[in-house]
Design goal:
Length: about 160
């Protein structure tokens, strides 16, 4: 079955070898693959590559090597060798895919969150006790005051 390439993170993979005999052979890799080339050193006959055993139209039918115009991302394919064609070892040049984590449902929400402080003090400072009990690098953190100095500089232009 073909898969949506955009839902995966891709990384280079060594060439995978698939041993085939005459007839239909389902190929189910351990991980999703994005293929750039199908080739064989020992097989020169016709081959048919299908998306699934029930597919009406082949992805490819012909001789190897087969380099698709666009990569083919899949989690399973079916190779078909003509009857009495013997055996073949097909080299699949591909990348492996890891499904991306879907974080959209967790973004842009305040569900389960509480505010620590919702206003400024009378002296226009903002303080919070939000770090009490928070441990970072093995040390308990305490609320801190960080002085900030904002300097205003001057710009001088030089006429030439």
């Amino acid at each position: 079955m073909l898969v949506d390439e955009s839902k995966y993170i891709w990384q280079k993979e060594s060439v995978e070898e698939v041993s085939l005999t005459s007839g239909s052979f389902p190929f189910i890799p351990a991980r999703v693959l994005r293929v750039y080339q199908f080739d064989s050193v020992d097989y020169t006959g016709e081959i048919t590559i299908l998306e699934s055993e029930t597919a009406e139209k082949p992805l490819y039918q012909g001789t190897l090597p087969f380099i698709p115009q666009a990569s083919i991302a899949f989690n399973s394919l079916v190779f078909v060798l003509p009857e009495e064609s013997g055996t073949a070892v097909i080299s699949v040049t591909a990348e492996t895919g890891t499904l991306k984590a879907v974080l959209e449902p967790y973004l842009n929400t305040t569900e389960g969150m509480d505010y620590i402080s919702n206003g400024y003090n009378d002296d226009s400072t903002y303080s919070t006790t939000g770090l009490e009990g928070f441990i970072f690098n093995g040390a308990q953190q305490v609320p801190s005051i960080f002085p900030v100095t904002i300097g205003l500089g001057s710009v001088r232009t030089v006429n030439s």
